[in-house]
Amino acid sequence: MARELTMSIKGLHVIAKKLATGQTRYYYYAFRGGPKFWTSEGSRLDEPGKRLPPEFIQAYSEVMEDERAPVADSFAMAVMLYRKKSPAFRKMKTKGQTARIKYLDKWLEMPLKAGQPAANAPLSVFDSRRIIKFITSHRDRVWGHSPSSADEAVLALSAFLTWCKKDGRLDWNRAHGIEPLYERPTEARIWSLEEQAKFLKTASAHLAWAFKLALHTGLRREDLTRLPLSAITKQHLIIPTGKSRGRNTALIPITPPLRSLLDEIDAARAKLATAPLTILFSSKGKPWTAEGFGTSFDRHRSRIGLGPENHGPTIHDMRKTCATNMVILQHLYPTLISDQVLTDLFGWTPGTLAKMKRIYVSDAAVIEAMTTSL
Hints:
By secondary structure, the protein is α+β, with helices and mostly antiparallel strands. It contains 15 helices and six strands. It has three domains: 3-68, no CATH class; 75-166, no CATH class; 193-373, Intergrase catalytic core (hpI Integrase, Chain A).
């Protein structure tokens, strides 16, 4: 008569059966009700003081890997292959890949008929037009609180489905053409003087330094937080921009207000036991991470009524504010602020200057400043 024994490996089970020869045969299973992966006769392999054979461990690892693997030809399997094989995905920065994976993981949870998650469904369900209603319903349920996040989630799914189509796995990309929820403003959003004052009034010193440095330099969040002390020269801040993967360099003139800010930060740095090698640092005396700074920034602006729920300006809008201010100065002092100064400051190229101005500069603010000056 067979009897069931529990082995020392968590979740592993063995059934012992007496043979006609009088010996005992042991059947090893990955878990209760799981696949059998080993058979032995004589003594059990898990006796105290006995080492499990390497072949036994290898067989157990392989069967567990098979159990964890997605169902063949399923949505989940295709996502796994996309992460390994898609040239476009592999070229993305780590930050972009992480965000893409996060969205796709949520799409794997999308309920289909009878509430079953899409992960184990055949990838071919995405060829049917009927999948569109499931996509939009899941988008609204998971990301409905943030129209921009909802659009990014659909974009991530669409990029995946495009790869599936190019790879011959699908005939259609049913996410393509889904109407976006976020209405992008036609005019660049900038920080007004009132909003700047409101933010700085109650911000901590370390957050205020980062805010001011962003307004002076127009650097993106990632470049701002990693800006090293070695970037400071006698007349400029010099840093290869992260978005260009170091191909473009921002050459930022150190104006008297910027010099004053750098001196203020430096005075605080001198009081630290261990000084960080970055210009900016948190209240703990450690360099800001891009994510840490972003979280602190967003919490503060929400606290003072400038958060996304109130359609307040964002971190990236500080770059637009800096660009707008520089274009205003260019109109007022054309001999001092040339197009070359702008391309150096923002890490742009002469060929894209006009396009960048359209994206980053508030024409309304420029016109208002020029009217006031006249």
